[in-house]
Design brief:
- This protein has one domain.
- It is 18% helix and 25% strand.
- It has 2 helices and 5 strands, in the order βαββββα.
- The chain has a 5-stranded mixed sheet.
- Strand 1, helix 1 and strand 2 form a beta-alpha-beta unit.
- The longest helix has 12 residues.
- It is globular and about 50 Å long.
- It holds the Pfam family TnpB_IS66.
- This is IS66 family insertion sequence element accessory protein TnpB.
- InterPro entries: Transposase_IS66_Orf2 (IPR008878).
- It comes from Rheinheimera tangshanensis.
């Protein structure tokens, strides 16, 4: 079971990535393609071309970590974006991991209580 920290940003690389890449290859992918800093503490999600494998790279104070998943059936519901990346919420990442596709997304307006 993978659970991303709720206060960290999650970045999905929407272009296909070779899943033979490990730490150095994924770190280079973050720097060169996503133009982000891999030691920022953010989570970086990569999916292969067939959308059957996923790797998540993140940095902890003691070093880098990689979480991986390979599907036996089906595909991860990841769509391409023009800029090659997409920000995700922890719920969005969990839905991708669980194979849930959102057809239409509408966020209802919420009341925010003013602090006095």
């Amino acid at each position: 079971m993978f659970a991303a920290a709720s206060q960290q940003k999650i970045w999905l690389c929407t272009s296909a990535v070779d899943m033979r890449k490990s730490f150095k290859g994924l770190i280079a992918q973050v720097r060169n393609q996503l133009k982000l800093e891999p030691q920022s503490g953010h989570y970086f999600v990569f999916v292969n071309q067939r959308k059957t494998q996923m790797k998540v790279l993140y940095f902890e104070p003691s070093g880098y970590c990689i979480w991986a998943k390979r599907l036996e059936q089906g595909q991860f519901p990841v769509k391409s974006h023009a800029d090659g990346q997409c920000a995700l919420s922890t719920g969005g990442l969990q839905m991708i991991i669980d194979g849930i596709t959102v057809i239409a997304h509408k966020q209802s307006k919420r009341y925010l209580q003013q602090k006095q």
